[in-house]
Amino acid sequence: MSPSRARATTALALLLLATTACTAAEHESTPAPHSPPAFRQAEQLRLPLDAYASTMAETHVMEDAEDILMRRCMAGLGMEWQPLPRVDARDDEPPNFRRYGAEEAEVGRYGYHPRPDPPSVVRRNRAWDEREALPVEVQRAAYGPSGKGGCRRTAQRQLVGDTAQPDYQAFNRLTGKALEASRRAPEVRDAVREWRTCMTKAGFDYPDPLAAASNARWQTEEPTPAERATARADMTCQQSTKVVKVWSAAETRIQRRLIGENAGPLREAKARKDRWLAASRRVLDRGDG
Prior knowledge:
The chain is mainly alpha-helical. The protein is built from 12 helices and no strands.
């Protein structure tokens, strides 16, 4: 069986931390009358631990280079291998998108729902699905009987020799720890308290932005009018209280401390990732001729 498609390592699953907060009932009688201007802070947000994981764009680079080498290996076995369609650089989601709740630019349209995948991402996901349906003999040649061999393993050895694949265990542990610690920082609590007051005046009752974004009521196929109204008020209040600016500053301080305390494992993880990335870029620079 082919390996699962890669996902962003700056896990959007961090939003699940919000489910530990109780979500209070909102009052929909006074929705925000207008959608605020496009909210771009999340797209520009960078945190110190980002250096120790791969962005989605970097993950694509490594996958694309591996594909080129796999195609050559499969051709040697008399089999065709279709590389994944490339993703447009503009379509890669920022690494910390939605880290502090809903940070969508188009909340008036999508509420807390994610924006639809852009065409280049749709094409790549479809290609991954098609790989899952490849004939057994092709999958065995590509991935070996265990899913960890075949031409994929050959391609990886050509890329980096015996260097193990990037390991994000330390990053995942520390980025979750930093987010939880930053929620308890006094300045973040003050900013969230101001946000909650702003939301209450608009007719909504939530303890913090993560709770608003993770309300189970929003688990619908399409965003509802109530969801859009809540998200618009949320964005207005986040902007007026500067929640993201305050929260990210607190988390930046905490992440720097954690990096100092875990320098060894993080340095080793980054060196491994950087070696894979550099080797992959060399393959892409040469192309598949």
